[in-house]
Amino acid sequence: MTDTAATGRDLPHPERENIRLEPVLHALSDPMRLRIVRELAGRGAELTCSQFDLPVTKSTTTHHFRVLRESGVVRQVYRGTAKMNALRRDDLDGLFPGLLDSLLSAADRQSRRLGDAA
Predict the structure, then answer these.
(1) Which residue among 17, 66, 68, 106 is least enclosed by CB atoms within 10 Å?
(2) What is the dihedral of CA 50, 55, 60, 62, to 10 degrees?
(3) For the chain, which domains are there?
């Protein structure tokens, strides 16, 4: 039994075969959500929601994570009281080969071009 099953706090995620391109692209079209994905990809590890320093309210942050989770971009699980976030890289790469790497690379180039700190 997993922590989430034990606590009854399991969060809904699409199964890999149900992840669609349109919601993934929608989720990644928002600058804050793209920032979250870039940080997860760069760290290569699970991160708690509080580890992200986003210039938005807590409720807006929660919304962004929900959109990412419901589209299949991230997996969120509770570990004790912490909600952990992980990029679903294997699922995304398997379904849409090269998409995530291309988007992350384009975001990095844009950030350098515009002098963004993100």
Answers:
(1) 17
(2) -20
(3) 3-96 (1.10.10.10)
